[in-house]
Write a structure and sequence with these properties.
Chain lengths: 141, 370, 425, 219
């Protein structure tokens, strides 16, 4: 029997945290348009009832993108019904959700290729190209 | 966890993590989760990343005194490669007598060497309380806990007291405290001490504190020496059952309708309102739940003297001790004293009545005439 | 010869303090509502005239003698014993500024019987020699002559002879076995002789046997007013002796408030046993006759009139309905004052104030309360059932140039009396 | 002593001591009062003293219109804070648990925000009462240090309780400790101050009412 098989009765309750969070998202949304600021809200550290999580999901709706990354366990990125508002869920190796953020931006930060990685990639590509060209020259000669 | 001998070149944490095959994207995820675990705003993530990138892997010496190994269990039972595991990997654990491979003299030797090598820089982690009544109650390699703590503390950059025993004395200190147990802070006065209480503490909190120490140094502490980031709010404040408390809806027993409906457990002894910990948000068992979600009140394990808090199943407002009987004894004492003072009053009044001299008009006129 | 001393005063306080008083002092929360209930404060708003404050020395004696904390405080020097000078200072508060009207007692939210305590406190004031001269004089005359105003039997006999001659009624003296023994107050004999005629007419007409006593005709009791049980006992014993000697069924207290309190409520306790006769106020007797059909009237007073309730009758005696029943027999235009019945305001001269020369000024100030009540009503006539009230009201009206005649209720009833056939037995 | 030690002390021995003094003091004071006795009354009663006593106990909760107008602040604000104190003391869930633990039985509680609102209103009323006492010539004149002590020991538990609930100023544990301590101070001084009127008011009303009943005075 797994944990999910145990029937849990939970009266429907609200912590009252949903409304403020929705307004926070809306504010971050307008900041993105006005100043291009990337916004991030940590949902995991807020006391939400299961019902409120569901209400939030319903409010945001589903968008076009649903990506799964394989980084230290899975990370799932879903654009909401509002373009520019993303759900970012981090999972560990056992698929337990260990982090839940709302990101407001063109793409979630984690999706971007990281500058250092790009630099390192450029350096690596340069080296490889140089090595191949050296080899070709050797072959010609 | 790796036991490694002192290395002349100390790689930074970032380098170390990458050498473990963790990408920068992974690092970013790690930093995001770390910020969440340290209860920091997501805006802090780049700063954490930058700080971690540059941080040196610290040497950590872990001493276990009068303890049950629950704190170590809490930490190591977290599934790997969990966030906790990653952080733990980021340190150089040079001595931990439960986890290390070495034993006997070799183990103690490793400790002494690490203390010498990193004098003034290592982090000392302590779990368990220290007995003061008789040093023989708890020794390691023939050295009393007190002596070992003092010696190890002397060269430590900071001390992390993990678990309620190390932080406040915990179970060993519970009434009648047969070993004369005390906390680390009762003995060590000249070093920064971070208390990470809990019985056991939440693994995420242990690593969160270590991460904070690595990135931003000593965290801000409350009056009981706990990092405010994790212990800043009471269980009650962040409890999902709080709305029931507000509405005055309480479970009266563990099997009544209220309990089934998930009402507030205050009357069943929940210590949430006076307990500071991150359980309600961080949760246990890889984020599954925390005790109140399972229908049991908070027992206040991250607070000093929680064993003697008047019973796990008594509401916090209830006085400890036999109050009802006390009131009866008091009433009896009151009656005894009342009878005595009543008799005195009666006597006094009777004397006044008997010594009354009849007032005559002659007297009245004499007085007014004078 | 012995003298009155502070020690005797404190001793009297100690002897008087009982469980109700201890409870009252424990209950007072200094809310000050008794001040607003007291005409000596409302018409002269100095905080020290607040009723409960008038008891302060008594309260201190209680605290120091009968409470654990008070004894402790006294031992530690935190409280000082009551001094003779303090009692001297309090004389003004306890006598001049209190008519024992009982209004504070009625209003007090915690239920303190302040009036009862002031009456008890006066015992100590007398024993320590701090009673006002006017009351000492009245008490002395009452004990030595038999009347606080010095009225002697011959004066009454002269009145009676005059009455018999003018009305043709018989006024019996010392008639053993009569149903009623009629008591009088000196004020009635001197100021309102028509009262005796009115009662004689009504009782005779009702066919009742009644008598005066030549040994004791004075119902008022200066001992009650000055607050000395010793003197009050002496005076009330005379009434009891006369009544028991004549074997009457009922003693009628005259139209006087405190005489009723003295005779009806304090008397049996002063002599330490129940009476062998009943004690009733004349208004009670008249109302009984009315109920029995032995008192019938004809015609109505035309003028707009109101009734002043004597405090001792309403608040301290429970006689509220009877005077109204009687008034309604003879008055068509009877209106009530805003505060009436148990809530009525005192005339300002009861409880010994009228006999106290030191209170001359105060009692006229206190009358302002009654003046305000009357000014609201615009009545032509004021009726009352207490000679003491009546004197005060008349004096107050005169000083304030008000033109409202004050009548006694009994006389008004007598004027409208219908003669019963075969009534005069 | 850290705040938890402090909290444990106030909940433990301090509470027991306070409760002991309160109970013993209460009984002692009642004996002190009742032992002074009352004389037998020989006057023929016109009414039933018992009935009069009971009637006055209840009647004095109200007042006549004119008195109400004259003493409006005293009466209205007095009512507000007395009702408020009753609700806060007896109907907060945490308090019900305390009574249950001491007396062995409990009763239903009100929801916390409702009690909280009562606490605020009660505190405001008590402040008004204090200002009124300081400004009203009669009240100021009559007031002894004991009156102000009684006010303070009533007000402080309300304030500390409110602050503990709302996490103001100090940590809730410390505040809870201070709250319980302030209640203990209240309990200790209770029998020996004006606060004793809580109990003697019924005795006084009864005595007065019995006297009125005996005389046939119906108010």
């Amino acid at each position: 029997m797994s944990l999910n098989d145990i029937p849990v009765h939970s009266a429907s309750i609200t912590t009252g945290n949903l409304r403020p969070v929705l307004h926070e998202i809306r504010h971050a949304f307008s900041e993105l348009i006005a100043h291009g600021t990337h916004g991030m809200i940590d949902l995991h550290s807020l006391p939400f009832s299961p019902q409120e999580y569901a209400e939030l999901d319903e409010f945001l709706g589903e968008g076009e993108i649903d990506l799964t990354l394989n980084v230290l366990g899975k990370t799932r990125l879903r654009e909401s019904g509002y373009a520019g508002i993303w759900r970012v869920e981090h999972f560990d190796d056992n698929d337990n959700r260990i982090g839940y953020f709302i990101e407001i931006g063109h793409v979630p930060e984690i999706l971007r290729s990281q500058c250092d990685d790009i630099k390192e990639g450029l350096a690596a590509m340069t080296t490889i190209l140089a090595m191949e060209e050296d080899n070709n020259e050797d072959a010609i000669t | 966890m790796r036991m490694q001998s002192p290395n002349p070149y100390e790689p930074t944490l970032g380098e170390h993590l990458r050498s473990q095959g963790i990408s920068r994207r992974g690092f970013l995820k790690f930093c995001g989760l770390l910020a969440s675990s340290m209860a920091l705003a997501p805006a802090m993530i780049p700063k954490i990343a930058a700080a971690l990138e540059q941080a040196k892997r610290p040497s950590v010496i872990w001493l276990s005194f009068q303890e049950c190994t629950g704190c170590t269990e809490s930490l190591t039972r977290s599934h790997s490669p969990s966030l906790e595991g990653l952080v733990f990997d980021a340190i150089s654990l040079d001595y931990h007598h439960t986890l290390q491979a070495a034993s006997g003299d070799a183990a103690e030797h490793a400790r002494e060497e690490a203390m010498k090598e990193h004098y003034g820089k290592y982090v000392l982690v302590v779990d368990g309380s220290i007995p003061l009544d008789n040093p023989g109650y708890s020794t390691i390699a023939g050295i009393s806990n007190l002596d070992m703590l003092k010696e190890a503390a002397a060269g430590a950059a900071a001390i992390i007291a993990v678990g309620t025993c190390a932080a406040y004395g915990g179970l060993p200190k519970a009434d009648p405290n047969p070993t004369g147990a005390v906390s680390v802070s009762d003995i060590i006065k000249d070093k920064p001490i971070i208390n990470v209480p809990g019985c056991p503490p939440i693994p995420m909190v242990i690593t969160g504190v270590i991460a904070h120490f690595l990135t931003f140094g000593l965290p801000e502490l409350d009056s009981l020496g706990r990092p405010k980031a994790f212990y800043g709010q009471s269980i009650h404040d962040r409890c999902y059952r709080r709305p029931f408390y507000e509405r005055g809806l309480f479970a009266e027993t563990f099997d009544d309708e209220g309990a089934k409906a998930g009402w507030c457990l205050y009357k069943l002894g929940c210590k949430g309102p006076v307990t500071y910990n991150a359980c309600a948000t961080t949760k246990w068992n890889d984020g599954t739940s925390f005790p109140i979600e399972s229908g049991h009140g908070c027992i206040g394990c991250s607070e000093p003297n929680f064993w003697d808090f008047g019973g796990f199943y008594k509401a916090i407002s209830i006085p400890t001790g036999a109050s009802g009987k006390n009131a009866v004894y008091a009433a009896a004492a009151g009656i005894a004293a009342g009878v005595a003072i009543g008799a005195m009053n009666k006597k006094s009044k009777a004397e006044a009545a008997s010594s009354h001299q009849t007032v005559t008009v002659e007297e009245l006129n004499q007085e007014s005439g004078s | 010869m012995s003298t009155l001393t502070l020690e005797r005063g404190i001793n009297a306080f100690k002897a008087q303090i009982d469980a109700p008083m201890a409870s009252f002092f424990s209950s007072c929360v200094s809310c000050g509502m008794c001040a607003d209930a007291c005409l000596f404060y409302t018409e002269n708003p100095e905080p020290r005239f607040t009723p409960i404050y008038k008891l302060e020395p008594l309260r201190r004696v209680w605290e120091q003698e009968y409470t654990l904390i008070g004894k402790l405080k006294a031992k530690l020097g935190l409280s000082k014993p009551v001094t003779d000078a303090e009692l001297a200072e309090w004389q003004e508060l306890v006598y001049n500024n209190c008519s024992l009207c009982g209004r504070c007692t009625l209003i007090c939210p915690v239920g303190n019987d302040i009036t009862y305590m002031i009456r008890r406190m006066r015992e100590g004031m007398v024993a320590s020699g701090h009673a006002p001269g006017g009351l000492i004089g009245a008490s002395t005359r009452a004990v030595q002559i038999g009347s606080p105003m010095g009225v002697k039997l011959p004066a009454l006999q002269a009145q009676v002879r005059h009455l018999e001659k003018s009305s043709g009624l018989t006024v019996p003296f010392d008639q053993e076995g009569a149903e009623y023994l009629l008591m009088l107050s000196s004020m009635e004999i001197m100021n309102y002789p028509e009262y005796l005629g009115a009662v004689a007419k009504i009782l005779t007409n009702a066919g009742k046997t009644w008598t005066l006593s030549s040994e004791c005709f004075e119902a008022t009791n200066s001992g009650i007013q000055i607050g000395s049980s010793d003197i009050a006992r002496e005076l009330v014993s005379r009434v009891v002796a006369a009544a028991e000697k004549l074997k009457v069924k009922t003693v009628i207290s005259p139209e006087c408030g405190h005489a009723y309190t003295a005779l009806r409520w304090e008397g049996p306790n002063l002599i330490g046993r129940p009476y062998t006769f009943a004690a009733k106020h004349i208004v009670e007797v008249l109302d009984e006759l009315r109920a029995e059909g032995l008192l019938q009237t004809e015609g109505f007073e035309e003028s707009k009139l109101t009734f002043h309730d004597p405090c001792q009758l309403v608040r301290r005696g429970g006689v509220v309905e009877q005077p109204r029943n009687l008034l309604n027999m003879v008055a068509k235009n009877f209106v009530e004052m805003a505060d009436h019945g148990t809530l009525n305001w005192c005339c300002g001269a009861g409880g010994g104030v009228s006999a106290n020369e030191d209170a001359e000024e105060v009692k006229l100030k206190a009358f302002q309360r009654k003046k305000k009540q009357l000014d609201e009503l615009h009545v032509d006539t004021l009726v009352t059932a207490c000679a003491n009230c009546r004197i005060q009201l008349e004096e107050g009206m005169e000083v304030n140039q008000m033109d409202i005649p004050v009548l006694g209720l009994t006389e008004m009833i007598a004027e409208h009396l219908v003669e019963r056939k075969g009534g005069a037995a | 002593m850290n705040e938890v030690d402090f909290l444990l002390w106030v909940k433990g021995s301090a509470f027991n001591i306070a409760l002991f003094i309160f109970m013993a003091g209460l009984v002692l004071r009642l004996f002190e009062i009742l032992s002074l006795g009352r004389k037998v009354n020989y006057a023929v009663p016109k009414g039933d003293p018992m009935q009069g006593g009971l009637r006055e106990i209840f009647r004095r909760f109200g007042t006549d219109k004119a008195t109400f107008q004259r003493s409006m602040i005293t009466i209205v604000v007095g009512y507000v804070f007395h009702i408020g104190l009753f609700v806060v003391i007896f109907l907060l869930a945490a308090h019900v648990e305390v009574f249950k633990s001491v007396m062995g039985f409990g009763w239903p509680n009100l929801s916390t925000p409702v009690v909280d609102a009562f606490a605020v209103v009660t505190m405001i009323a008590l402040v008004v009462v204090l200002i009124h006492r300081l400004q009203h010539p009669v009240k100021r004149f009559l007031s002894s240090p004991g009156d102000y002590v009684a006010w303070a020991v009533t007000f402080v538990p309300l304030l500390t309780g409110y602050m503990a609930y709302h996490h103001l100023l100090l940590s809730p544990q410390m505040m809870l400790g201070l709250h319980i301590l302030s209640v203990e101070v209240l309990l200790i001084v209770f029998p020996f101050t004006k606060l004793m009127h809580t109990f003697t008011v019924f005795l006084s009303r009864w005595y007065n009412g019995a006297s009125m009943g005996l005389r046939g005075v119906k108010s």
